[in-house]
Design brief:
heterotrimer; B: mainly alpha; C: mainly alpha; MetI-like fold; 76% helix; globular
Chain lengths: 557, 281, 326
């Protein structure tokens, strides 16, 4: 029958269409003001989500949403006194004596397993942060606090060793309060590998949902958060092999936000994209080549090359930092006059530093015995060539570019540099263990130099952030003086300037760039406020208006 | 007439001539690099204005570090072709030796060697090389080249073994042995010259494989170290900026493709030229 | 046939065993145990693993314990991924397998089509031009081709995604037709890259095989019978010309793994190649050893499969006994 076949064919086609349509149904769920999925693309991944034992800025970004501090920095960024701080875990505070600070915790605060947040948690947190077994990088920032005790379940007392202007900042900024009942049993020397750090329980605006190693971390909004329900329902960090990959994800629409666009052409692409909004903010990062003043792997002996101060000074003077910076950043960064970020109030282009002077550098090298005796273009002394290895992670396109530019700068000066480009986690291991000649490092600084500077450039940071083991008692003294006089701006400025200038004369590193950041966020996300010291600190106020929700935003979990 | 018959068979392939030309071109510029390249390969010309598009002054443009791409392609030819050739030499030498010994002596020597070849073929080469570079840090470039060669001889050994197995039964071998020649002499003077054809062909094709392997390793960051240019690490350096400066990653890739293509064409033509028993199609 | 198969199976297992042994000793000699060396496992994990793998015992004992653990499916613990090695590999292998399968399909489909096209126009312009394009593609570095395709199709044209196996928010699992389509959409570019390079090679073999077969007597018979040229080619010649494809199938495995390592890196495809490369960069040696073992096993099995298929397809081989295998 000629008519039977076409009809069968038609029903087949209709069935196929139905199946296709049914299968193509997309998940529709959330509507209203508390929806939205924000995807943040990041070139770095946290090592562990336990605040005391991780210095990564990406860890800070995530744990900012999971854990609360006693009080947080205000919009002005002022770290002196206590007037400009906003209550978080602590509802209010008062000074019993000039060196005794009493916090009253908010009774509404809850851990995400239901338990109340108590003063015991705060005391436990302080104990952990200052425990030598935990070996936290933030321990040195808490050295002026003598003791933390509890008066009752909601009252905590901080006793300081002396009065100084930024004592409140030290009490609240560095510590994220941890749940004592979940961490008490974990042996202190195993905190770096604690299971809690892979699945944390916090008291912040967001709950931990999932962490797929190497791929993503997902957080979900806590609708009962006592300081106000976050608007964005889900926040997901997606990890890419490097920051450039993160920007690519942003441009193709797979991600909604990146912290830094880094290079001028990325900024151009983002500005040209009609779906993205760019947010410039003062950068808190500075990058440098750090010399290892101790022998690699043996901190008792000086480094065969970099133990020599003149050699270090010559290398600094051989580097044309301005031109190299313009290649990498265009006008999105400045050459810092020392280990400073643009965020710090002590930033002053007048600070004296070693100039770019290749002639003087050459003379200095020759004077210390490094001459090119065999005509191969590389200086040598006693049969050994002037050669070293520069350690850097593969995740930073900026540092890789810098490494290649510096390689050539040094080669012209007669120094051979070989690059060790390793995985980010391996880089950090080696940096901490001192197994390197020189390394290309970047720090995201705190809002004030009082805590970060000693961490990195005084013996308080040995085995932690002071990778190169730089130690100058004069610098220590000047830093202490600067911190003590922080209320008197002029006196502090003079002390800081003297400290930085003394450090510059020692040339423990070549200070290459201090960034001016530009973040990019998808236009549909409104109320974006970025605090320069921690760009996602105010994430819980960001929102997506109901009329701008996309499919991705409507997915419920 | 006999001497030119292979030549005619060679050029009967339409791609043989152009292939030979491409190879000659790249080998020439590699050898004459200091004269052909306008700039030294490390030289960063004007770091404040990188990423020049191709122009009269910079034939293939400049890369993100403001180095002349054409100069680096020329010097990179030295490195990439050199690595390919040396690694191939190592591979062919070891492969021929193993294959000849296995094919000539047969029995347990053959079995043992061929099992070794099976094990060698079971591990993907790039994996072995990556492991070697990771396990022993800072290995010198020549060691890397040696390793590339030492992981690539297995196919050649099988080929040579097959040839030797069949040649061994021929009269000239029996005659040589009857005259009292030792095994080594028989292999070198009598068997191998007649087995030369597949060896030469696999050598020609092998260079291409080695070059691609080196490019892959450099792309992953485990190959030729900066600042020495190789076509592989030029791609690795330049692909981040593909959107704004496509030339710095494209031209080295094109160079590799052309050279490998030429090697394939020449290898195919050689296979037919040297082995008259095969039908050309 | 059965005897031959058993012998080949035993030989294959011996090869894998040899690979495991070599890898084990090389890694241990260079870097020691996972509890020592540059990136040691955390102490509590070390305690657990020590019982199974005997890290404080002499090397031969460790070796035996490792083999015993393998038989139980345990391969150690990865500090980089924070999970047992076997779990990580089990998650990654299917992705590589699917990628390789898709690439093989594209490879053979394109290669076959191109080979037939070239054979039909043997010696004419179409043949020569297609042959040259195929040769060029076959000569490209596979990662470079991937980068170019990524740039053109994903970044400029936005026709395909820029990497990854799926849309992680809308389709974290393949649980609907939509998500299956999403997965295939993400699979396209990486599989295409791998398939294209292989297709060129397949096409050359196929063309030669078809032309060889076309000269045979049975084809002339078919033509003499008056059958159309198309039918002659497709039905009679093709069936016999398919044999080389089977050999290529076996040869494809090592190539696919090498290609997969690079392609998975370019396209961020979460397969075994990328897992192995990341582990090598992080000096995560338990993962490296496990991956080495598994890839060799897959390569060897692939060869075995190819040989078995060849024996099935070509009756001439079945009659012959002997050592078997190329």
């Amino acid at each position: 029958m000629p008519t039977a076949r076409p009809r069968a064919g038609l029903t087949c086609a209709a069935l196929a269409c139905l199946i296709l349509v049914a299968g193509c149904e997309r998940p529709v769920g959330c509507t209203g003001e508390y929806c939205g999925t924000m995807v943040i693309a990041s070139g770095g991944e946290p090592d562990i989500l336990l605040p005391p034992v991780s210095e990564f800025s990406i860890t800070r970004d995530v744990t900012d949403q999971l854990f609360l501090k006693l009080a947080d920095l205000g919009a002005s960024g002022n770290t002196i006194g206590d007037e400009d701080f906003l209550p978080q875990l602590a509802q209010r505070w008062e000074w019993d004596t000039p060196t005794t600070l009493v916090f009253h915790l908010d009774p509404r605060a809850r851990w995400q397993d239901g338990q109340a947040v108590t003063a015991a948690d705060v005391a436990f947190t302080y104990d952990a942060y200052t425990d030598t077994l935990v070996n936290s990088s933030f321990r040195s920032s808490l050295r002026q606090i003598a003791a933390v005790t509890t008066r009752d379940s909601l009252t905590v007392v901080f006793r300081f060793r002396r009065r100084y202007p930024e004592m409140f900042y030290d009490a609240v900024y560095h510590q994220r309060i941890l749940p004592a009942h979940l961490l008490r049993e974990v042996p202190r020397d195993q905190w770096r590998s604690a299971a809690f750090g892979r699945a944390p329980v916090g008291d912040g605006p967001y709950r931990f949902v999932a962490w797929k190693a190497g791929e993503s971390i997902e957080l979900g909004a806590d609708s009962t958060f006592f300081l106000g329900r976050p608007h964005l329902r889900r926040v997901i960090w997606r990890f890419t092999p490097d920051q450039q990959g993160a920007v690519t994800q942003l441009i193709t629409g797979d991600a909604d936000a990146v912290e830094v666009l880094v290079t001028p052409d990325n900024v151009q692409r983002a500005r040209a994209d009609s779906a993205l909004a760019t947010y410039p903010y003062r950068g808190s990062a500075y990058g440098y080549v750090g010399f290892n003043l101790a022998a690699p792997g043996d901190s008792t002996k000086p480094h065969p090359l970099f133990g020599d101060r003149d050699l270090r000074r010559a290398l600094v003077m051989a580097t044309d930092r301005e031109r190299v910076l313009r290649n990498v950043f265009g006008d999105l960064a400045k050459v810092p006059p020392g280990p400073l970020s643009q965020l710090w109030w002590i930033w002053d282009p007048e600070i004296r530093e070693l100039p770019y002077d290749s002639g003087q550098a050459a003379r200095l090298l020759t004077r210390t015995g490094w001459t090119d005796s065999d005509g191969d273009g590389i200086r040598d002394k006693d049969g050994r060539p002037l050669a070293f290895r520069l350690l850097l992670p593969t995740t930073s396109a900026v540092r890789r570019q810098y490494a290649r530019l510096l390689q050539e700068q040094f080669r012209i000066a007669g120094v051979e540099v070989q690059l060790d480009e390793v995985d980010f986690s391996l880089y950090n291991e080696r940096a901490r263990a001192g197994r390197f000649d020189a390394l290309l490092n970047v720090w995201n600084t705190d809002p004030t130099p009082s805590s970060g500077f000693p961490q990195t450039w005084t013996p308080a940071g040995f085995g932690r952030s002071n990778y190169g083991r730089y130690d100058n008692p004069e610098v220590d003294r000047l830093v202490d003086q600067a911190v003590a006089s922080a209320a008197n701006r002029d006196q502090a400025r003079r002390a800081w300037r003297a400290a930085v200038e003394t450090l510059n004369r020692d040339a423990p590193g070549i200070f290459l760039f201090a960034t001016s950041n530009v973040a990019a966020v998808h236009k549909r996300i409104a109320d974006v406020t970025i605090r320069p010291d921690s760009w996602l600190a105010l994430l819980r106020t960001w929102r997506i208006p109901a009329d701008r929700l996309t499919d991705r935003d409507r997915v419920e979990r | 007439m006999r001497a030119t018959a292979p030549g005619r068979r060679f050029f009967r392939h339409p791609t043989a001539g152009p292939g030979l030309f491409v190879l000659t071109f790249f080998v020439t510029i590699a050898i004459a690099a200091p004269f052909v390249a306008p700039y030294p390969p490390y030289y960063q010309i004007d770091i404040e204005h990188p990423n020049h598009p191709p122009s009269a002054q910079f034939l293939l443009g400049t890369d993100p570090l403001s180095r002349d791409v054409w100069s680096r392609v020329v010097y990179g030819a030295r490195v990439s072709l050199g690595i390919g050739a040396v690694a191939m030499l190592v591979a062919v030498t070891v492969g021929t030796a193993v294959g000849a010994v296995a094919g000539y002596f047969r029995r347990w020597v053959d079995t043992a060697l061929m099992r070794l070849v099976d094990v060698g073929l079971a591990m993907p080469r790039i994996f072995v090389l990556l492991m070697a570079v990771a396990l022993w840090e800072h290995i010198a470039l020549w060691v890397l080249v040696l390793l590339i060669g030492l992981t690539g001889w297995f196919g050649t050994s099988r080929l040579v073994r097959a040839e030797v197995l069949s040649l061994r039964e021929r009269e000239f071998v029996a005659a040589a042995r009857a005259l009292g020649a030792g095994a080594g002499r028989v292999i070198f003077r009598h068997v191998l010259p007649n087995a030369a054809a597949p060896i030469i062909v696999s050598a020609a094709l092998g260079i291409g494989h080695m070059m691609l392997l080196e490019a892959g390793l450099s792309f992953l960051g485990m190959g030729v170290p900066s600042p020495t240019p190789s076509w592989g690490n030029m791609i690795a350096d330049g692909w981040h900026k593909m959107a704004v400066a496509w030339w710095s990653a494209t031209f080295p890739g094109l160079a590799i493709s052309l050279v490998v293509m030429a090697l394939n064409a020449v290898g195919d033509a050689l296979r037919d030229a040297l082995d008259p028993r095969r039908e050309t199609v | 046939m059965a005897a031959w198969l058993v012998r080949r199976l035993v030989a294959s297992m011996a090869i894998v065993f040899a690979v495991v042994t070599i890898t084990f000793f090389v890694v241990h000699l260079a870097q020691g145990t996972p509890c020592g060396g540059e990136r040691p496992l955390p102490p509590d994990v070390c305690e657990r693993e020590r019982a199974v793998f005997g890290y404080d015992k002499p090397l031969p004992v460790q070796y035996v314990k490792y083999l015993a653990a393998l038989l139980h499916g345990k391969m150690g613990y990865s500090f980089g991924l924070h999970r047992p090695v076997a779990d990580a590999l089990a998650d990654a292998i299917p992705n590589t397998f699917i990628l390789a399968l898709a690439a093989l399909l594209i490879d053979f489909a394109l290669g076959l089509a191109l080979g037939i096209y070239q054979a039909a126009r043997a010696g004419r312009f179409g043949d020569v031009a297609a042959g040259n394009v195929a040769l060029l593609i076959n000569s490209m570095p596979v990662f470079w081709l991937g980068l170019v395709l990524l740039l053109v199709f994903a970044q400029w044209l936005r026709w395909f995604p820029a990497g990854g196996p799926h849309n992680p928010i809308l389709c974290p699992r393949v649980d609907s037709l939509y998500c299956l389509l999403d997965f295939l959409w993400h699979l396209t570019l990486p599989a295409l890259t791998l398939g294209l390079v292989g297709a060129a090679s397949t096409a050359r073999y196929q063309r030669a095989a078809i032309l060889e077969v076309v000269r045979q007597d049975y084809v002339r018979t078919a033509r003499a019978k008056g059958l159309r040229e198309q039918r002659v080619l497709l039905v009679h010649a093709l069936r016999n010309a398919l044999l080389p494809i089977i050999t290529l199938f076996g040869l494809a495995f090592p190539f696919l793994f090498t290609g997969a390592v690079l392609i998975e890196t370019v396209f961020a495809w979460p397969g075994m190649g990328r897992l192995a490369v990341n582990a090598i960069f992080q000096r995560d040696y338990p993962v490296v050893t496990g991956a080495a073992l598994l890839t060799s096993a897959m390569v060897v099995l692939g060869n075995l499969l190819a040989d078995a298929l060849y024996a099935v397809a070509d009756p001439r081989i079945r009659v012959r006994g002997g050592e078997g295998g190329p």
